[in-house]
């Protein structure tokens, strides 16, 4: 089983194929097959047969998977297509940009920031209570 350097939700640049140069968001990833589905890329047409009288048949356009090696992550910090480096931050392995060093795992960074904010909020009310007690004395 191959490890993918891209995840669902990443903005990527397509490097090869008929949609070379297009950018889009990853909708689905299939790590076992080493393939990803990118929004607006590799559009195929399928004929749909109506299953019942209420259903409509017709020709449907949808995205098909492409090989994960044909896409490159776009760094949210520097805006460039980059390779992925792995580094350990606060005991967790995170993906980082090879060009600018920024974290590509924004969700993990947001969670850490939320934890820090909640800790800061928890500390402030206790200090406020202490100052009110001092004023009353």
Walk me through what this model shows.
Helix content is 23%, strand content 35%. The protein has one helix at residues 106-136, and strands at 11-14, 23-30, 35-38, 43-48, 58-63, 66-67, 71-74, 81-82, 84-89, 92-97. A 6-stranded antiparallel sheet has the order 6-3-2-1-7-8, with no helix packed on it. A hairpin with an 8-residue loop joins β1 (11-14) and β2.
What's the CATH C level of the largest domain?
A: Mainly Beta
Question: What is Rg?
Answer: 23 Å
Biggest sheet features: 6 strands, antiparallel
Mean pLDDT: 80
Give the gist of this structure.
The protein has 137 residues and is α+β, with helices and mostly antiparallel strands. Helices cover 23% and strands 35% of the residues. The chain is extended, with a radius of gyration of 23 Å.
Describe this protein with a few key phrases.
alpha+beta, SH3 type barrels, six-stranded antiparallel sheet, two-stranded antiparallel ribbon, 1 helix
SSE inventory with pairings:
Blueprint: E1 11-14, E2 23-30, E3 35-38, E4 43-48, E5 58-63, E6 66-67, E7 71-74, E8 81-82, E9 84-89, E10 92-97, H1 106-136
Antiparallel strand pairs: 1-2, 1-7, 2-3, 3-6, 4-5, 7-8, 9-10
